[in-house]
Specification:
Layout lengths: L3 H14 L4 E2 L6 H4 L6 H5 L6 E2 L1 H14 L4 E6 L3 E6 L9 E2 L3 H7 L6 E4 L12 H11 L6 E6 H6 L14
Parallel strand pairs: 1-2
Antiparallel strand pairs: 3-4, 3-7, 4-6, 5-7
C-alpha cells in the first residue's frame, strides 16, 4: 500500500484525538529555555487531568509512531512543537538539523517523503480533521524565522539516544 505510513499516522492522530486531552499552555519558551514534559502515562491518565501542551502532544505522537515501526520527527519552533514522520525508508544524516529546508523540500507537493502533523489539533475541543492538521503543520514551516530544529528520532536511536523509560502509576 503506497500511502500506508500516512494512513498509519492518520489513524494515530484519530486515536489520540479520541483520548480527549485538554490543551494547557507551557510556562517557558521551548527552544530557548526548555520545558518539563509529561509522560504518555500522565497525558492519558484521567487522575492526572489528561492535559498536555504542544511539546507533550508532539512527543506522544512521536512515541506512538515509533511504537508502530514508523520513523518520527520532532519539529521545534521558538514557542511551538509538532510532529512529523518519514513516509519513505529514509533518515537525515544527523539526529538534529536546524535547516528548515530539509523539511520543506521533502513535504513539497509531489515529493511527499515526509508528513507533518499539527498535534495540538488533536486536543479536546478542536475537532480538526487529520488533513487540516497536516496543512496547519506545513503552514507553520512557512515562518522560517520561528523554526529552531528538527529531531530525527530514528537517527537519534542509532546514535544511542534512549527513550524515556515507561512508568506505570498505581494510584500513588
Amino acid at each position: 500500500v503506497p500511502n500506508r505510513p500516512k494512513l498509519m499516522v492518520g489513524a494515530l492522530y484519530e486515536a489520540i484525538a479520541e483520548q480527549k486531552i485538554t490543551y494547557c499552555y507551557p510556562t517557558m519558551t521551548l527552544a530557548k529555555h526548555g520545558q518539563k514534559i509529561r509522560t504518555c502515562e500522565e497525558l492519558l491518565s484521567a487522575e492526572r487531568g489528561k492535559r498536555g501542551c504542544c511539546l507533550d502532544m508532539a512527543l506522544l505522537m512521536c512515541s506512538c509512531m515509533e511504537a508502530i515501526g514508523l520513523h518520527p520527527l520532532l519539529i521545534m519552533q521558538d514557542e511551538h512543537a509538532f510532529a512529523g514522520c518519514w513516509l519513505v525508508d529514509e533518515m537525515f544524516t544527523d539526529s538534529v538539523n536546524d535547516d528548515p529546508t530539509v523539511l520543506t523540500k521533502r513535504t513539497a507537493e509531489g515529493i511527499n517523503e515526509i508528513i507533518l502533523v499539527e498535534t495540538t489539533a488533536a486536543n479536546e475541543g478542536q475537532k480538526t480533521p487529520f488533513d487540516k492538521a497536516v496543512i496547519s503543520a506545513n503552514n507553520s514551516l512557512k515562518s522560517v524565522e520561528k523554526f529552531s530544529f528538527v529531531v530525527d528520532i530514528a537517527r537519534a536511536r542509532l546514535a544511542g539516544v534512549k527513550p524515556i523509560p515507561q512508568r506505570i502509576y498505581n494510584g500513588n
